[in-house]
Amino acid sequence: MKHLKMRSSVIAMTALVMMLTTACGTAEKPGSSPTGDAKTSPAASPTAADAKKSTTPVKVVWWHSMSGELGKAVDKLVADFNASHKDVQVEAVFQGTYDESINKMKASMDTKSGPSLIQVYEIGSRFMIDSKAITPVQSFVDADKFDLSQLEDNILNYYKFDNKLYSMPFNTSNPILYYNKDLFKAAGLDPEKPPTTYEDVAKAAQTLSKDGKSGASFAIYGWFMEQFFANQGVEYLNNGNGRTAGATESQVNNEAGVKTLTWWKQMVDNKSAANLGRKTDDTKKAFLAGQVAMTLDSTASLRGIVAGADGKFQVGTASLPKPADAKDGGVVVGGASLYILNNKSEAEQKGAWEFIKFLTTPQTQAWWHVNTGYFPITKKAYDEQLVKDNLTKYPQFQTAIDQLHNTKANKATQGAVMGVFPEARQIVEGAIEEALTGKKAPKDALDGAAKSITEKIATYNKTVK
Fold first, then answer.
1. What integer pLDDT is reported at residue 113 of this predicted model?
2. DSSP sequence for 190-237
3. pTM for this one?
């Protein structure tokens, strides 16, 4: 019976695979009431006594998308866990980008070749739940009486649906404003008082634009538009951002969206902001070269940006800007979380949960934060000396911490969720591009994007049903 259920899940997933193949594929959101309940109960997992009787440790295969230095950090976490857990051994396997990894998971569902645990980007959340391929983390939390209050509320909120946690947050970030303090001082601006509103950013950008330098440059990244909505306390999708019921309509063309894109376009039009395209790597390079005075980037980029500017200029950080008359809001977490697959044995699933618990300890989170720049998801990690020393060295990160903690919990900041989010993000990027290059007025560009996204949501929702 279990195999029949799995085949039906695979058929549903195959029908949906085209929804995600056009996704952006970056290393950095889902609708109706979730029903992806566990097919196996963690409470029925082997006891400690059973585990001791076993001569072979349980093997947990973890698929992840962390490359380069991040990949080395992942390998270190796995090595530390394996050294301290002889009954469970984790094998970390890099599977390419988030898009590549999730598509490989789909292809593996009818076989035993897939992972026990998989890292999935936040915008894949709705799809993972709809797939019925996972055992919700909440099942293990309840069985183990695991205390979720030790974790950051504003991070957990994104991954909760109907107050149920489906995955465990792992690498978490949000965007902040980076600025060149030296250029601020040279332009007669107070380097200790960065702009915080759209209006102040536009004014500062004009003052900073001189001697061949641009006051600002923001990459055409859909994630930024999503964040601008949340920071105004405005929902990106209908039906409570797709959380009170399944999203059926994009709201990217509402007043908050038009106001944001108009502000952005006006700065490009008056040459106070440079349009360098869709890649944050390009705006980052221009910022580090001293060609632009302000940029937006992930908090996870902070260490690299500060190190890259060392000896050239002093980096300042500020919260994500918003209109002066905006309602209470904040930022939505970005990054990825960890899902436990339900086509694996109870022992493997329990082993994956043991690894997840290891990752949430204050000591592990402190090390992960300091070595990657991602937020600690555990509150007590900030009490670790390692983190305190890191904040002394990189005081700019206090901005990121304050921004996360000052975020007002509501449906806007909890984050929009839809099954076609990767594709929707690209559509929004296309609309921003049309407006900034003058092909369409901001309202027209966003109207087109909203219509296209709404149509794709409708197709997805029919497929899921």
1. 82
2. -TTS---BHHHHHHHHHHH--TT-BSBB----HHHHHHHHHHTT--SB
3. 0.86
